[in-house]
Amino acid sequence: MADFTITNLREVEDFAARHGLSEHQEARFPRDDLEVETLGFSHQVVKPGKRHAFAHRHKEAEEVFVVLSGSGRVKLDDEIVEVKPLDAIRVAPPVVRAFEADADGLELLVFGVRHAGDAEMVQEGFWGDAQAADPDPAAE
User: Fold this and answer.
1) Closest CA to 83 of 109, 122, 112, 62
2) pLDDT digits over 57-88, tens only?
3) Count of domains forming the chain
4) CA atoms within 13 A on the CB side of 62
5) Residue 107 falls inside a structural domain
6) How confident is the model at residue 1 (pLDDT cuts 50, 70, 90)?
7) Is residue 139 part of a domain?
8) Are 133 and 58 in contact (CB under 8 A)?
């Protein structure tokens, strides 16, 4: 293995498309492309007015989400917080988390120590009755 690796994140396979979730998001996990040994790392794009296709939590992995562009909201257990470019959000392992994009979409980089098999998806009802962001506020 070389002492460095360079990969364009937009050229990494989109796992959201592979799993039929491309209506909601893009999700690229460049671990193999970058030959990363211990770091968990992803590039995610939440489409305008959409939410992550599912929420998730971890047993051991703390994560940091960095908003690159766009804005929206993150739901952390029962709390919903507005996010904007260059916000960095640290999330402890057991906190259930998911993002929602506003009209411009939401682009994120996610970092943490990799723990294989550590994630648990939370499918139904996580957002409860929280309203989704309106992708076109002028449409009302």
Assistant:
1) 109
2) 999 999 999 999 999 999 999 999 999 999 99
3) 1
4) 3
5) yes
6) low
7) no
8) no
